[in-house]
Amino acid sequence: MASFFDGLDLLEPGPTAPHLWWPDGPRLTPLTPVNRTSLCGVARIPG
């Protein structure tokens, strides 16, 4: 996954499961296997 961010500044919290971006948010449904195997991240162009 790190290769997707080559040349970019990776922002906190770094690569993580999407449901962890809002851990205190309302959980409307139980986590599925897809939720447990997905990763996401946010980066910006330096400069």
Search tags:
little secondary structure; EC 2.1.1.-; methyltransferase activity; two-stranded antiparallel ribbon
Task: Describe what you observe in this structure.
The protein has one helix at residues 33-37, and strands at 9-10, 43-44. By secondary structure, the chain is low in regular secondary structure. It has one helix and two strands. The chain has a two-stranded antiparallel ribbon with strand order 1-2.
Briefly, what is this?
By secondary structure, this protein is largely without helices or strands.
Q: Helical segment tally?
A: 1
Average pLDDT number = 86
Largest sheet, spatial ordering of strands? 1-2
Identify the overall geometry. elongated
The proportion of strand residues reads 5-15%
Number of β-strand runs: 2
Helix content, binned percent: 10-25%
Rounded to an integer, what's the Rg over CA atoms?
A: 13 Å
Oligomer: single chain
- Structural category: little secondary structure
For the sheet with most strands, the description reads: 2 strands, antiparallel
